[in-house]
């Protein structure tokens, strides 16, 4: 380069742009992670209310739900034929020890949730069902900028006895 001063200015400007882009990326990523966690929370709150009304908007139409080793089909099918009827048998459903880890990569997000859930049954309220659960989900950002579940896979087991 014939003009070292111009090179220095150009390098400095590019360095600032690069530094600014790096500084903004984590903030944008944190905002997207928070938006994904909000979708996870909305779904969790619906389950705790024992009411799936309106939850289909959280899922793409062609979503896939897998639960404890069984492919349940789309969320619409799962809500109508599995989750909804199951929730109608419960007197309560609560989550505790909840943790969520989210990684956003472009228009996709990958979530892992761990939790304990407790179910009260209408027919036997004295014997709650307690399970330790995990869910992994893939969400996609739609054209309107909303995150939706593309697929979700959950499983649970009885908690291990404390030593």
TrEMBL record:
Superkingdom of the source species: Bacteria
Record domain DUF4440: where: 37-148
Signal peptide as annotated in the record: 1-23
A matching Pfam family: DUF4440
Keyword annotations: Signal
Protein name, as recorded: DUF4440 domain-containing protein
Organism, scientific name: Hymenobacter antarcticus
